[in-house]
Specification:
Order of helices and strands: HEEEHEEE
Helix content: 10-25%
Structural class: alpha+beta
Strand content: 35-45%
Mean pLDDT: 86
Number of helices: 2
Number of strands: 6
Low-confidence stretches: none
Shape: elongated
């Protein structure tokens, strides 16, 4: 029997691959140089990084396998940098720009397809005790399996 990769995993992997393209000189930041699909245990890394997480999903059709998924993109910039908040804002702007353009549905493999778009809400915070500034952007994905 072959291995099965859930469409939500394929979706997270696709977004991570797209985020990895955010590097200078084509973009304002190099946040794509350090992309992960798992949340780090400590926010005291000495380099900016980006994490893509599946925040949740909702089934939209009882007849087809369709879901509306929310992905959380977290950009972390070490607070030791004097311009950490400005860098976090620029990085999340790069992420927004990457996904804001209207695109056709993308094939994820395994018969899964997704249409991605950013949600207009961005949050910028410095969690208590964290040595990083965190900017969070939410992506919405319409996920369909055939």
């Amino acid at each position: 029997m072959g291995t099965y990769t859930p469409p939500t995993t394929l979706l997270v992997q696709h977004v991570a691959t797209q985020l990895a393209t955010i590097t200078t000189p084509g973009w304002r930041t190099n946040i794509g140089a350090n992309v992960a699909t798992e949340r780090v245990q400590a926010l005291d890394d000495d380099a900016p990084f980006c994490t893509v997480l599946l925040a949740g999903w909702e089934a939209t059709s009882p007849f087809q396998v369709e879901r509306v998924c929310e992905l959380r993109i977290e950009v972390a910039v070490p607070a030791t940098d004097a311009t950490a908040e400005a860098q976090a804002r620029l990085a999340v702007e790069d992420v927004f720009e990457l996904f804001r353009r209207p695109t056709a549905e993308v094939a994820l493999g395994g018969g899964a397809f997704a249409l991605l778009s950013p949600v207009d809400t961005v949050e910028l915070a410095r969690p208590e005790g964290a040595k990083a500034v965190i900017a969070t952007l939410t992506l919405r994905a319409e996920l369909r399996e055939t």
